[in-house]
Amino acid sequence: MKKITLVSGASSGLGKKMAKLLCQKNHIVYVTARRKNELVNLQKECLNYEGEIKIICGDLTNTNFREKIISQILKEEGKIDYLINNAGFGRVERFEKQSINDMEKMFNLNVISYIHLTNLVLKNMLKKNKGKIIHVGSVAIFVPRPDYTVYNSTKSAIYAFNRSLRFELKNTNVSSSMILVPKIKTDFAKNAFQNYSQEECKKYVKNFNKDAENPEVIAKKIIKKLDSKKEIIIPNFRAFVCYASRYFPETINLILGKFFIKKNKN
Ligand SMILES: NC(=O)c1ccc[n+]([C@@H]2O[C@H](COP(=O)([O-])OP(=O)(O)OC[C@H]3O[C@@H](n4cnc5c(N)ncnc54)[C@H](OP(=O)(O)O)[C@@H]3O)[C@@H](O)[C@H]2O)c1
């Protein structure tokens, strides 16, 4: 029987790579994002794969849309085996300059959409006593950086949510994990520096992507550990070091203060 998987934010970056790999592995992958043409391209690219790509296009910050996705999948398939909460974005700038609009959008997408989709799939997963939820987190939770203040708060909120949820799922066959994603070369940086001048944005994006990991490499690591029951999934050495830094946060803050805060940018 084919696995039924939902990947949010599959029109680009990490989500697109994960959706492709899952489709190769014979999953029926429901993909969602706002850009329909990108999802259609993904579907075409996967035509010869074992599995199938099914598109549900829309804005995940919309409550009705999130309800529509889950009810449509359950109606068509009767189950969801894997939920991958991946859609997300950050606006990187000094906190006092951040607009409430950007803050609300970040929380709506990076936090509310994750917990609402989880809430919507959980009933079905618990009834079948089977299922896996994966939240795409960030190393930023353990290595906070200036200008990422609100973005970090969103990812930290999901970290806390996942920890509590795991207690509730303890005696079931349903599990929930978070991936600690390191810097990856996607559209993330372009969106993150959107509020700067074109010239500044280009410079910061280039700087961000300089040592960023290939998203395909990270996607492969995630898919390999899809059934892991661990709380935190660590896809590479950089993520491991960041996670380990929770044992010496004071030192990390000291280093950050010395090397990053005065420079202000990445
Ligand atoms: N890149 C990094 O360095 C990095 C590091 C750590 C963690 N992460 C996390 O990794 C995840 C994937 O990001 P990425 O790096 O692959 O960036 P990306 O290429 O920009 O992908 C973001 C995805 O989210 C979707 N999305 C954005 N706003 C949406 C909305 N309102 N409704 C529905 N979908 C929406 C985008 O699709 P549409 O625009 O078509 O809607 C896109 O498919 C995010 O959670 C991000 O926070 C990234």
Q: What secondary-structure arrangement, pairings included, does this model have?
A:
Elements: E1 4-8, H1 13-24, E2 28-33, H2 36-45, E3 52-57, H3 63-77, E4 82-85, H4 100-128, E5 131-138, H5 149-168, E6 174-181, H6 188-192, H7 198-210, H8 215-224, E7 232-233, H9 237-244, H10 249-261
Descriptive report:
The longest helix has 29 residues, at 100-128. It contains ten helices and seven strands. It has a single domain (4-261), classed as NAD(P)-binding Rossmann-like Domain (Rossmann fold, 3-Layer(aba) Sandwich). It has a seven-stranded parallel beta sheet with strand order 3-2-1-4-5-6-7, with helices on both faces. With 266 residues, it is an alpha/beta fold. The protein is globular. The protein has helices at 13-24, 36-45, 63-77, 100-128, 149-168, 188-192, 198-210, 215-224, 237-244, 249-261; strands at 4-8, 28-33, 52-57, 82-85, 131-138, 174-181, 232-233. 39% of the residues are buried.
